[in-house]
Amino acid sequence: MTTVRLPLFPLNTVLFPGLVLPLNVFEERYRAMMRELLKTPEEEPRRFAVVAIRDGYEVAPSAPGMPDPTAEPERGPAAGFGPDPLAAFHQMGCIADAATVRERPGGTFEVLATGTTRVRLLSVDASGPYLTAELEELAEEPGDEAGALAEGVLRAFRQYQKRLAGARERSLATSAELPDDPSVVSYLVAAAMVHDTPTKQRLLQAPDTASRLRDELRLLRGETAIIRNLPSLPAFELTRTPTSLN
């Protein structure tokens, strides 16, 4: 088992290997994290881990509020995550490599990172200025018939794109080259589908590529059938990754 200790950045989203994550960093705990990452030489990876929040707040309350308007807001690296941060997060996440960490005049940061490797969360340390975690790096196993499943998922995904665009009465380019590596396909489709965090987390946690692709094929067929019978859809953006408030 290969373990590593890295800064931990909890978010209300699931990061997949190969996917780009833009961040607007303004909370002091994460600003401290970015200042530390900037000490890493440019030729070395500036790595941190992203985990999806199961129970807690991405941005800690910064002013008194309900139910007690006089209560002081929480402070510190674990603010918003309860007495046991480990229990507040999903137990599988993804290492992110920050290709760009740009400090603004006011001390906030603009960050552009890319997911690299899945990890399992083993422990969380809240003793420093930001959370750190001990993580187990996870290999991606192909599973049975991953290649054939990837072809089926790509076909279903193109139909899903067409139906989604049609239901929203707008065009969506489908001519872009899509990858043929099964694991890359599985992560790209998982990130691009319009689903809630628990569903995306389930896809991230799939035991192998083939299992993830099978699950995606079921989801895509079901969603396409639903979209076919809907006159309109909520205003989700299929091809854009939301920028976290942090």
From TrEMBL:
Transmembrane segments: none annotated. The keyword Hydrolase applies. One of its GO terms (biological process) is proteolysis. Keywords: Hydrolase, Protease. This is ATP-dependent protease. InterPro entries: Lon_prtase_N, Lon_prtase_N_sf, PUA-like_sf. The keyword Phosphoprotein does not apply. Residues 6-224 form the Lon N-terminal domain. One of its GO terms (molecular function) is peptidase activity. Residues 60-80 are annotated as: Disordered.
